[in-house]
Amino acid sequence: MTAPEAQGLGVRPAAPRRSAGRTQAPVVAAVALGGGTGAAARYAASLWWPAHTGGFPWTTFWVNVAGCAVIGVFMAVLTGPRTVHRLVRPFFGTGVLGGFTTFSTYAVDIRQLIGTGHVRTALAYLAATPLAALTAVWLGSWAARRALERRQP
To answer: Is the N or C terminus of the chain more exposed, i.e. has fewer CB atoms within 10 Å?
Structure first.
């Protein structure tokens, strides 16, 4: 169908498409900036509270739990009635919180604990982290939703 035929039917011709690179560049930049910020915060936490060889990796554990609690709050706030800028979610959710939480370090910690003969600690960590992280997401989301409900008239 030609453009004049389409207009006669009330159909607008398609708008020229922008390249995917141009439309995604701000999102990629937001994720990268947020990821760097979150990773720097996680690194600072590991410097403040270094893990002891063979001991339970408390810093990584609490970083993941805290990050998951904030993810729960963040998602509850985002699903509310107010609108936010389109880059807030990629910057904060994917970037900052994705860089802050570290399930790759969790896996490496487990491997190192097993490799150094601390199998019971590794198994406790293996079980405790996802359980605590999922609980934190749920509690963060639940608390945020309750707080938002109270604010509405």
So the answer is: C
User: Sign of the CA dihedral 29, 35, 38, 40?
Assistant: negative
d(CA 112, CA 16): 53
Question: Domain for residue 98, yes or no?
Answer: yes
pLDDT tens string, the chain, 153 residues long: the values are 555 555 555 566 665 666 656 688 999 999 999 999 999 999 999 999 998 888 999 999 999 999 999 999 998 988 876 778 889 889 999 999 999 998 899 999 999 999 999 999 999 999 999 999 999 999 999 999 999 888 876
Per-residue b or e along 56-95, where b marks 16 or more CB atoms closer than 10 Å to that residue's CB: bbebbbebbbbbbbbbbbbbbbeeeeeeeeebebbbbbbb
Distance of CA 123 to the CA centre of its chain: 25
Q: How many Cβ atoms are within 10 Å of 6's Cβ, its own excluded?
A: 13
Instruction: Indicate yes or no: pTM above 0.85.
Output: no
- Is residue 6 one of the residues assigned to a domain? no
Asked if residue 2 is part of any domain, the answer here is: no
When divided into structural domains, the chain yields a total of 1
